Amino acid sequence: MIQIIPTDTCYWLAGDVYSPEDYHEIYRLKGREFDKRLALLVSDWDMLCKYSEITDVQIDFLRNYPHPWSIILKRRDTFILPDFLDRTKYSNISFRVASVCLPPTLLEILPHFPLFLTSANLSGHSESTTFAGAISCFPWVEWYDGWVCDQPPSDIFSIGADGELQYVRRNYS
């Protein structure tokens, strides 16, 4: 089931990673091109470690990163993706950590993780930073509210072998 959820930066469409219906419905609702991968929302640091190849040093860095972030990491071979996903396409995945970017009350009521995640707007349009904006795009989608999305969009980056950040999107200086 697709849901609209608030994060620290904007409202997002979220769906079950193991549901081909959710996966395809997100693309259909947004009018999104299938060559653009969806991010994954994991519940916490332990789940991030379970699904990605990340070091303790990188986790410490992320814990102290001063702005909202999404990190692109290599998927662990032990994280078996469902058959409907292209394993090659999803060898690297953009992750967000729910315990960092979601309100605590929402963490308590979301059914399970990981979730597919993408901003709750039509492709090519601005991200929905208000509940009204998200609902106006997708009025029939189940939703959660009760959070202020008051940060600019997250920085999106990977960390190179040399430890340098490689930004895909940088919103903070």
Helix-strand layout with pairing:
Elements: E1 3-6, E2 11-16, H1 20-30, E3 39-42, H2 45-51, H3 56-64, E4 69-74, E5 92-97, H4 98-101, H5 104-109, E6 115-119, H6 131-137, E7 142-143, E8 155-159, E9 165-169
Parallel strand pairs: 1-7, 3-5, 4-8
Antiparallel strand pairs: 1-2, 2-6, 3-6, 4-5, 8-9
Q: Helicity range of the residues?
A: 25-40%
Ends: how far apart?
37 Å
Q: What is the overall shape?
A: globular
Instruction: Determine Rg (CA atoms, Å).
Output: 15 Å
Could you give the order of the helices and strands? EEHEHHEEHHEHEEE
Give an overview of the whole structure.
By secondary structure, this protein is an alpha/beta fold. The chain has a single domain (3-169), classed as DHBP synthase. The chain has helices at residues 20-30, 45-51, 56-64, 98-101, 104-109, 131-137; strands spanning 3-6, 11-16, 39-42, 69-74, 92-97, 115-119, 142-143, 155-159, 165-169. The chain is globular and about 45 Å long.
Write a concise keyword list for the protein shown above:
173 residues, alpha/beta, DHBP synthase, nine-stranded mixed beta sheet, 6 helices
